[in-house]
Design brief:
This protein has 380 residues and is an alpha+beta fold. It has nine helices and 19 strands. Strands 2-9-6-7 form a four-stranded antiparallel beta sheet. Helix 8 crosses helix 9. It is globular and about 80 Å long. It starts with 8 loop residues before the first strand and ends in a 7-residue tail after the last helix.
């Protein structure tokens, strides 16, 4: 089912949702009132879920909650991050709940709208908070109901739009349902993977195993999207870092700025710091996104191994306004990797010292095989 967006119209968020501001919930409250009801705050990890709490306690405290499916939007921190909560949730003061009218609400409709709202997230970068007035006046484009002759159906009550346009809820639901497919299967199990014995692994600097550039430094909000064809990678942990698709960019002479090629790894140096992703399509980048390119032909599986190492190394050692990753990634940022060994288990030494001052050589094949043994690794 293809989406023809040429006839979509603009709607204010306030005409589609009711918004409910969260109230302060502390970690101590969650620990002291254990339960099965989801608590959502402003983080991106784990779909924004902070923990589980007792529902009756939340009701007694008159906290902001929904026992039905809903969307949440982060007010600060990962501002603008939108999550879908299938079983409802309670939100703290750094998040808001978005609810559709009960007569149209469905899982498919929430899923469709979550995707569109997430595309507006760039508006809340650089510390801009999601205030109620600002978010309710945000604009989202939606498909509209049309007559048999192709003209828009007009609602004289102007419930959703001052122009009388009516969102086509059925089309949105049908589109999401058309995406459903058989669940992915895998022959691999957790027992398929070899034990990670890191005793013989050696330390490598990232700059010694690949080239590192600092991306295009473009502004997503300023990009043209008349004929979007190129991925735009930002600093988010969502959607492999891809904020959306944009037009080809031209320089002052009218020449196309070549995108980075698929197969590169991107690393967020701000925002979702250290988020590293293998890009499957050509792309441009925002500011504070570095791009890793490998001189030799590596499999995607080996590159995925590297992305995991980068994220693990970044998670605890680097943070904004402190030990920032962008000042280290091209100098002393590194991690341990498996190395190539001979038949007797001795390290194979490269006399050119291409990857290491000690001559160690990363065992790319071992990394590839390890990823392929993981659950769903056989689907790569």
């Amino acid at each position: 089912m293809n989406l023809d967006m040429s006839q979509w119209k603009e709607f204010k968020v306030s005409s589609i949702f009711t918004i409910h501001n969260g109230k302060g919930i502390t970690k101590e409250e969650i620990e002291d009132n254990e339960g099965n009801f989801t608590v959502v705050q402003s983080g991106e990890e784990n779909n924004g879920v902070l923990g589980k709490i007792n529902l009756d306690y939340c009701k007694a405290m008159k906290y902001t909650l929904s026992e039905k499916p809903c969307l949440t939007v982060a007010r600060s921190g990962s501002a603008g991050y939108v999550s879908f909560q299938l079983n409802g949730c309670v939100v703290g003061d750094s998040a808001k709940i978005l609810l559709l009218d009960e007569d149209i609400a469905s899982v498919e409709l929430y899923t469709f709208l979550q995707t569109l709202l997430s595309a507006n997230r760039f508006k809340y970068a650089y510390g801009r908070k999601v205030t109620e007035n600002k978010y309710m006046n945000d604009i989202v484009k939606l498909p509209i109901k049309i007559n048999e002759d192709g003209t828009p159906i007009i609602d004289v009550s102007q419930k959703y739009s001052k122009d009388g346009y009516v969102p086509d809820w059925q089309l949105m639901e049908s589109y999401i349902k058309s995406l459903y497919h058989k669940p992915l299967t895998t022959k691999n199990t957790h027992k398929s993977s070899p034990n990670l014995n890191t005793d013989s692994w050696q330390y490598f600097l990232l700059k010694d195993i690949c080239s590192i550039s600092m991306g295009n430094k473009m502004d997503y909000s300023a990009m043209s999207m008349d004929d979007p064809i190129v991925n735009f990678v930002g600093r988010s942990a969502d959607n492999n870092g891809v904020a959306g698709k944009v037009d080809f960019v031209t320089d002052d002479n009218g020449n196309i700025v070549k995108p980075y090629k698929s197969g590169c790894i991107t690393v967020a140096l701000g925002g979702s710091l250290g988020s590293a992703y293998l890009q499957a399509e050509d792309f441009y980048t925002s500011q504070n996104v570095s791009v890793l390119e490998f001189e030799e032909e590596l499999s995607n599986s080996a590159k995925l191994f590297i992305t995991t190492c980068i994220m693990n190394e970044s998670k605890y050692k680097y943070f904004p306004f402190g030990r920032e990753l962008n000042t280290h990634i091209r100098t002393d940022f590194g991690f341990a990797l498996p190395i190539q060994q001979n038949a007797t288990g001795e390290p194979i030494i490269d006399d050119t010292h291409k990857y290491s001052p000690h001559g160690y050589v990363p065992d790319w094949k071992w990394m590839e095989n390890y990823i392929k043994t993981l659950p769903y690794g056989d689907r790569l």
